[in-house]
Amino acid sequence: MRTILITGAAGTLGQRLSAAFQNSGDKVVGIDRESRGAAGLVEADLSRWSEAWASAFLGCDVVVHLAADPLPSAPWSSLQPFNIDLTLNVFEAAARAKARRLIFASSNWVMAGYRPATGPITTDAAPFPINGYGATKLMGERAGRFFSDTRGLSVICLRIGMAERPGGTRPGPETPQGLWGQQMWLSDRDMLQGFVKAVEAPADLRFAVVNLMSANEGMRWDIEATRQAIGYVPQDSHPTYSSASIELQERLVCSTLESSAQQLALVSSGPF
Fold first, then answer.
1. Between the CA of residue 59 and those of 19, 20, 31, 64, what are the distances in Å?
2. DSSP state of 170
3. How far is residue 151 from each of residues 15, 136, 143, 155, measured CA to CA in Å?
4. What is the rounded CA–CA span in Å between residue 31 and residue 43?
5. Where are the domains of the chain?
6. DSSP H helix total and E strand total for the chain
7. Which of 79, 80, 136, 157 has the fewest CB atoms within 10 Å, i.e. the most exposed one?
8. Of 114, 133, 232, 241, which one is the catalytic site residue?
9. Is there a catalytic annotation at residue 114?
10. CATH fold of 3-240, please?
């Protein structure tokens, strides 16, 4: 029986994963700032180091790190403690406890700047975050590489697609981010499979960053590398729903992103 520690265990994804691992016979240790009605959780603020909560990591085989401020629009006043400080603390606690692997919930926002482009989005392309949230997820990935190289911790980073949707579990007109959001839709079944496959990946996989989306029509996200790295085989796919207003929105967003990138390049070319 494996012991799996999940940070952010009281959230929607945390509860789904806890149930999935427990149903498979694993022991789950859940940690969150607030239990929010979930039974048996350790309540702790992981953004502030404490030997008390760090002791919960002892004896854990795998750490699944979900805890973060999940809002793409989150300000740095929240991102710094909950997406940077907290993540570094979790990596340190996992390494001290000699966990064999840590699964880091990264995000598609690390590559959001490629939205106006064409061609596949692979994980070996240069990162292109467009907001602070995406930047903190990139920082988490690089922290994972550091802890893998220096502390012997196996780290797998999952760049999760559009996994939480209002109005149901299928993409459609209401899907956030329009066509872009629909094309990186991730079903509940595929999401759970991706995390389970990451936990069960071969021990000699020391570090990996992979995309985690369903096999959607017209998708640019490369998931073949995910299959090769962890054995992920998506079971679900969905065509995109489009309309004149959705296509207009997509053109406007892409135009704004291209303009912003050009302005940033101009500013960056200066002497300071």
1. 20, 20, 15, 14
2. S
3. 29, 21, 11, 11
4. 6
5. 3-240
6. 9, 7
7. 80
8. 133
9. no
10. Rossmann fold (3.40.50)
> What is each CA distance from 5 to 21, 52, 80, 255, in whole angstroms?
10, 15, 23, 42
User: What is the C-alpha separation between 206 and 253, in angstroms, rounded?
Assistant: 37
Is the Cα dihedral 128, 71, 82, 18 positive or negative? negative
16: tokens are: 């789904």
Paired tokens of 132: 């602070």
Q: How far does the chain reach from its first CA to its final CA, in angstroms? A: 55
